[in-house]
Hints:
About 80% of the residues lie in helices and about 0% in strands. By secondary structure, it is mostly helical. It has one domain. The longest helix has about 30 residues, at about 90-120. The radius of gyration is 15 Å and the shape is globular. Mean pLDDT is about 90; it is low at about 115-120.
Amino acid sequence: MRNGSWLPVDLAAVSLFAVAGRLSHYDSLSLGGWWATAWPFLLATVLAWAVLLLVRRPGGTVAAGVLVWLVTVVGGLLLRVSSGQGTATPFVVVATVVLGVLLVLPRLGLRRLGRGERERT
């Protein structure tokens, strides 16, 4: 996967996180409700990518995934607080774990797949 192609993957993962959260708490989904949950984390994800581009690091590495994950969680939570949204401890824990899985695990999986393909050839 090329470097820049990870940005839409990350944004889709964060969007999925917001959809799952809205559905688990409200049993329905509206665009406005989704946006209220998603925008802080989407903006933080874009910020993480700006950092990756600034330091010229490839976006598909596990290290990049960890950076995107941490900036997305911390930045998203800070933006939630600054906009008057809640950051209850259970939400912080769930956001940290779910976003970690969604943003880091695909990169880890692809790295392992690549290693397996090299060993077979």
